[in-house]
Amino acid sequence: MTRIFVLLLCFLAAPALAQNNLYSDGNGIRIYHTLFNSQMMDVSAARALGLVRAPNMATLTVALTKPEGVDQFSLGKPGLLRAHILNILGQRTELEFTPVNEGDVTYYIAQIRYTDRETLRVFILAGFEDGSRGEATFHQQMYIEDE
């Protein structure tokens, strides 16, 4: 239950954290994504998820949803997910996601080290077994946070 609360908090806080869209729509898929400093997570929630809390560590959460009517989407579902980041020098880093299953909800978490004021460009490719595909691209400047 703590993990769902953390995920919901992260998604609700996203507009205040960045000037990025909270989601991207594809063909039969909506990709929700949030990138934030890992120290924003509660200590016990981070520990339960096996995440590192550090001033120079970002956490990326991704949830894949399917349309279920006009402006209605499912909760996060298991799917196919690949992502990478590019830094300002064009250096590419592939992200490794950990799936988190909470009852009927699945979401994915990856962590990214960064330097102060580094702009991370995030590229996400996602889909479902039924052929639904989508991508999300956004950038966000990250800051070293003091606790």
CATH homologous superfamily identity: Domain of unknown function DUF4426
Element order: H for helix, E for strand: HEEHEEEEEEE
Main beta sheet, described? 5 strands, antiparallel
Quaternary structure annotation = single chain
Arithmetic mean pLDDT: 88
Q: Specify Rg, calculated over alpha carbons.
A: 15 Å
CATH class: Mainly Beta
Classify the secondary structure makeup into a structural class. Answer: alpha+beta
Please give the count of helices: 2
Shape: globular
Strand proportion: 35-45%
CATH architecture: Sandwich
How many structural domains does the protein architecture include?
A: 1
Distance between the termini: 25 Å
The strand line-up of the biggest sheet is 1-2-3-7-6
Residues in helix, %: 10-25%
Low-confidence regions: 14-18
CATH-defined fold name: Immunoglobulin-like
Strand segment count: 9
Q: Would you mind describing this structure in some detail?
A:
- The protein is α+β, with helices and mostly antiparallel strands.
- It has two helices and nine strands; from the N terminus they run αββαβββββββ.
- It has a five-stranded antiparallel beta sheet, covered by helices on one side.
- β6 and β7 form a beta hairpin.
- The longest helix is centred in the first third of the chain and has 16 residues.
- The two termini are 25 Å apart.
- About 3% of the residues have low confidence.
Give a quick set of tags describing it.
alpha+beta, 5-stranded antiparallel beta sheet, 44% strand, single chain, 4-stranded antiparallel beta sheet, 9 strands, Immunoglobulin-like, 16% helix, 147 residues
